Amino acid sequence: MNIEDSLSTVVHRWNDGKMSLEKEFLGDESLIHLCLNGEKITSLLASNRDLEELLCGHYYTEYDIVTPTTKPNISIDQNSTGISVNLLNEKVELNTKRNNIVVSSCGACDQNDLSDLIDRTPTVSNPSELYSMHELILLLDKMRAEQVEFSKNGGVHGAGLLFNDGALDVKEDIGRHNAVDKVIGATFLSGTTQSIRAMFLSGRCGWDIVMKAAKSNIPVIVSVGAASSLAAKTARAANITLVSFVRNGKSVVIGPVDGRFHTKD
After folding, report:
1. pTM for the structure as a whole
2. How is the chain split into domains, by residue range?
3. Helices 207-215/229-238 angle, 10° precision
4. Is 109 annotated as catalytic?
5. What is the C-alpha to C-alpha distance for residues 58 and 42, in angstroms, rounded to an integer?
6. Are 207 and 228 a contacting pair, CB within 8 Å?
7. Identified catalytic residue from 35, 56, 106, 109
8. Which of 135, 191, 182 is nearest to 159 (CA)?
9. Which CATH class, in words, describes the domain spanning 133-254?
10. C-alpha dihedral, 5 to 243 to 219 to 127, nearest 10°
11. What H or E segment, with its residue span, contains residue 176?
12. pLDDT in tens, 95-118
């Protein structure tokens, strides 16, 4: 079940000294309840598209629940309280849950120790092939070109995954971390067994994104925006390379470089 992601509304547009009424598309921001066997686990402010992927990716990156490679039994219902996405699997149990709403900038809402955010990050395997910096920057541009919803409303983030066969999958959401959950969750629903070579982000890279990448064994993250200080520290600890603040063929590279990139690019 996909609900329309771009919602239209009538706005006043100021242009060249004149005010006019026009229709404008806005990125959807809905209250999404993620449930397990009928019990609410957490609530997200997210775009109401690709909700099965959102559930699979969020459960994996936040709760270490690995959904089956065959399509899981997921139901989606909408009512006055929001949209409920429910995974039905009696074999899955969850010991912890979040009672607060996870918003677009959240990733460590229930953490109290800053050093623990770094220490509990998994270490990513070294990539088996070298990267071309030029190719990574071109792929970031390709991801941005495939952001259909952003082209309509200018108000959603994009996340992409590059696989070993060169395929690039892109998902969008009002929240950065939700877009990442969706594109990671899509790998479960598609049944892919390929390794992920890189992740691409339309915005900045924070700690929450690095943690999700580490759990998914992704060695390189490429982002349009800059990386935060905690993202940089965590990436170095997790063996992840951040190619950040990509502008006009230039970037800021943080983390492992030697043995990862072609020397002549």
Report:
1. 0.89
2. 133-254
3. 20
4. no
5. 10
6. yes
7. 106
8. 182
9. alpha beta
10. 130
11. helix 176-190
12. 666 666 565 445 555 555 667 778
